[in-house]
């Protein structure tokens, strides 16, 4: 039996210890949240007009290449599917081929930001007035601020145009406003709408000093934190530099990658510009389900481990080339209160090295350290700063000739192999109903002749319980049929809505036997399956305790159906000659002695229906041909 058919992982939870909080757990249980709302505010960057003097200051501050990157249409379903594969325990994507991540090297190539230098750190603010008055020349009114954040719209309205003959002080104020707008709409975009924290402003006071910061490392720390937050099943939004994330996927994964018409930007730096301009190729039907299935079945030939190996290195600036060694540093990335681990030792194949089993990740607490205004965070992050200062001493190395089979065996035990089910819940419910119908038919044909009174009573109870289960499923089947059948092409278009779970009400708890399935108020469109089918897990169905029904199918050709009923250790055989000759089914009904009939109840009372596949199946057709059920009541 293929264990991964029934357990998507992790089998060993020592690495992915927060699996129960991860969105993949909710998806596996049928609780879809839909595509994430992606927050990136780049659409109006081209409305800024910069003078030559401003451009010089922007380049001096380290953002000469970032400003060249245009607004690129975001593929929300693709980003959402990637988030479902992100694990904050390791700061990596967990694919079937191994771990991958966005590295400092990717930041340098794709965005052209400095990945080496001083950490992006400073003082926090709870008010905008003083710092804006000092560094921008004026302060926004209260309608354009929120605590220590200012609206991007106010920055654009007030500073998007600067006269070429303006005084140098005015030019500097307008340039600082542009830089704050630039980072707030790209690498440090937030989920608060169109606002940016003013804590970045003092870092632009001196433009030469601004150019010494590791803005690329800060951008990656910010993105790691955003990915980690969005990977929790309670979240529905994501921020950070999503253009970076999407273009990273285009370079590394042959999934959702658009076909490009080569233009003047095709061989330009930064490399994100490759995806500027017209894109050809249909994107129809590429919703979250499409990308999820593609990532669930990702193969090694779908991965570009070294996407930059054939680029013309003459287009790479010298300062970027000289810092690429830091791309392999196992260190702490810092962006004010956000400190995230950069773990290239888990993704050595992205550097052209063989991948051994990596070291355990040292756990660290993620918490917001920006409490009161005027707090210098450097005094509260000594350990994180110490790791960053030692970045040159922690360059990872690899063994190019080692066998990776040991790594893959280890990895398959600690990872989450599947996000979506191989077979949808609706199909599982139909299989369960068919199995119960078979059991009911066979139980009805069992002869009680020769049984004692206790055995006869047990068989009668079996018949009654099975028929009650089938009766209860009539209402439940309506709920199953209301679930969107994405596998049949009925995908949701446009912005995918977040589906919220409805717990529903249970009825008739006072009846010890006739316990009904959960009902949902508001109609099928507002419900999630919360009764028997809600916890089905492929093939093994568990109801309650006290009575056991097992139905297993196999592919015999010359075998005939054989039924065994075991009551208190007594086995009774019943041939079923009325079924097709080319099927073989063995059904075992074991009825232990029960002292109190009130213990027998429909599974919906305790929501204990579970399912576990007992076979290794490659396709849904194989599953249909090889059903395997185990029912415990």
List the helices and strands and how they pair.
Elements: H1 3-6, H2 23-28, E1 37-38, H3 52-60, H4 76-84, E2 86-87, E3 92-95, E4 98-100, H5 104-111, H6 129-136, E5 145-146, E6 149-151, H7 152-159, H8 168-185, E7 195-197, H9 207-210, H10 215-230, E8 237-238, H11 242-252, E9 259-260, E10 279-280, H12 288-296, H13 318-323, E11 331-335, E12 338-342, H14 382-389, H15 405-414, H16 425-445, H17 453-482, E13 540-542, E14 548-554, E15 562-567, E16 570-575, E17 584-591, H18 620-625, E18 628-632
Parallel strand pairs: 1-8, 13-18, 15-17
Antiparallel strand pairs: 2-3, 3-4, 5-6, 6-7, 9-10, 11-12, 14-17, 14-18, 15-16
Q: What structural keywords apply?
A:
disordered C terminus; three-stranded antiparallel sheet; elongated; about 625 residues; alpha+beta
Describe this structure in words.
- The protein has 18 helices and 18 strands.
- It has helices at about 5, 25-30, 50-60, 75-85, 105-110, 130-135, 150-160, 170-185, 205-210, 215-230, 240-250, 290-295, 320-325, 380-390, 405-415, 425-445, 455-480, 620-625, and strands at about 35-40, 85, 90-95, 100, 145, 150, 195, 235-240, 260, 280, 330-335, 340, 540, 550-555, 560-565, 570-575, 585-590, 630.
- The strands form 6 sheets. A 6-stranded mixed sheet has the order 13-18-14-17-15-16, covered by helices on one side. A 3-stranded antiparallel sheet has the order 2-3-4. It has a 3-stranded antiparallel sheet with strand order 5-6-7.
- Helix 4 (about 75-85) packs across helix 12, helix 7 runs antiparallel to helix 8 (about 170-185) and helix 16 packs antiparallel against helix 17.
- Mean pLDDT is about 80; it is low at about 480-633.
């Amino acid at each position: 039996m293929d264990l991964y058919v029934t357990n998507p992982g992790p089998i060993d939870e020592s690495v992915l210890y927060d699996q129960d909080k991860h969105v993949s757990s909710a998806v596996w249980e049928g609780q879809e949240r839909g595509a994430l709302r992606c927050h990136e505010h780049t659409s109006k960057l081209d409305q800024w007009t910069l003078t030559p003097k401003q451009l010089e200051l922007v380049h001096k501050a380290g953002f000469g290449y970032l400003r060249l990157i245009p607004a690129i249409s975001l593929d929300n379903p693709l980003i959402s599917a990637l988030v479902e594969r992100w694990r904050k325990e390791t700061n990596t994507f967990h694919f079937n081929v191994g771990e991958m991540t966005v590295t400092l090297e990717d930041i340098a190539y794709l965005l052209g930001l400095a990945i080496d230098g001083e950490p992006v750190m400073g003082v926090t603010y709870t008010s905008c007035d003083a710092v804006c008055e000092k560094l921008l020349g004026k302060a926004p009114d209260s309608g354009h601020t929120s605590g220590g954040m200012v609206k991007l719209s106010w920055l654009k309205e007030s500073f998007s145009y600067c006269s070429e003959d303006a005084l140098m002080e005015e030019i500097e104020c307008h340039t600082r406003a542009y830089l704050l707008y630039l980072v707030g709409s790209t690498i440090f975009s937030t989920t608060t709408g169109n606002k940016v924290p003013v804590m970045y402003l003092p870092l632009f006071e001196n433009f030469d000093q601004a150019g010494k910061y590791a803005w690329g490392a800060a951008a990656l720390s910010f993105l790691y934190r955003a990915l980690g937050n969005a990977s929790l099943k309670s979240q529905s939004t994501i921020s950070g530099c999503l253009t970076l994330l999407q273009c990273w996927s285009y370079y590394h994964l042959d999934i959702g990658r658009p076909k490009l018409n080569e233009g003047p930007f095709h061989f330009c730096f930064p490399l994100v510009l490759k995806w500027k301009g017209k894109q050809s190729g249909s994107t129809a039907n590429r919703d979250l389900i499409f990308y999820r299935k593609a990532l669930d079945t990702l193969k090694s030939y779908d991965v570009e481990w070294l996407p930059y190996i054939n680029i013309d290195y003459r287009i790479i600036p010298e300062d970027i080339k000289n810092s690429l060694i830091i791309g392999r540093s196992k260190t702490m990335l810092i962006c004010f209160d956000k400190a995230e681990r950069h773990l290239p030792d888990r993704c050595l194949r992205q550097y052209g090295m063989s991948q051994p089993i990596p070291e355990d990740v040292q756990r660290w607490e993620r918490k917001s350290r920006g409490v009161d205004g005027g707090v210098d965070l450097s005094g509260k992050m000594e350990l994180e700063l110490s790791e960053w200062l030692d970045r040159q001493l922690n360059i990872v190395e690899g063994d190019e000739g080692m066998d990776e089979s040991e790594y893959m065996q280890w990895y398959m035990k600690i990872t989450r192999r599947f996000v979506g089910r191989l077979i949808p819940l609706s199909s599982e419910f139909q299989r369960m109903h068919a199995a119960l119908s078979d059991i009911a038919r066979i139980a009805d044909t069992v002869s009680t002749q020769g049984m004692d009174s206790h055995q006869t009573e047990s068989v009668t109870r079996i018949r009654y319980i099975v028929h009650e289960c089938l009766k209860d499923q009539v209402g439940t089947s309506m709920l199953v049929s209301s679930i969107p059948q994405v596998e049949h092409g009925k995908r949701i278009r446009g912005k995918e809505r977040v589906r919220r779970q409805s717990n529903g009400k249970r009825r008739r708890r006072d009846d010890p036997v006739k316990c009904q399935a959960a009902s949902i108020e508001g109609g099928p469109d507002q419900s999630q399956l919360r009764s028997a089918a809600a916890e089905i897990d492929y093939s093994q169905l568990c109801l309650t305790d006290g009575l056991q029904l097992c139905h297993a199918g196999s592919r015999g050709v010359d075998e005939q159906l054989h039924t065994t009923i075991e009551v208190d250790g007594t086995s009774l055989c019943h041939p079923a000659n009325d079924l097709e000759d080319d099927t073989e089914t063995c059904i075992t009904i074991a009825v232990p002695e029960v002292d109190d009939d009130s213990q027998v109840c429909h599974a919906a009372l305790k929501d204990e229906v579970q399912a576990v596949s007992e076979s290794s199946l490659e396709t849904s057709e194989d599953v249909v041909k090889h059903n395997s059920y185990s029912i415990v009541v």
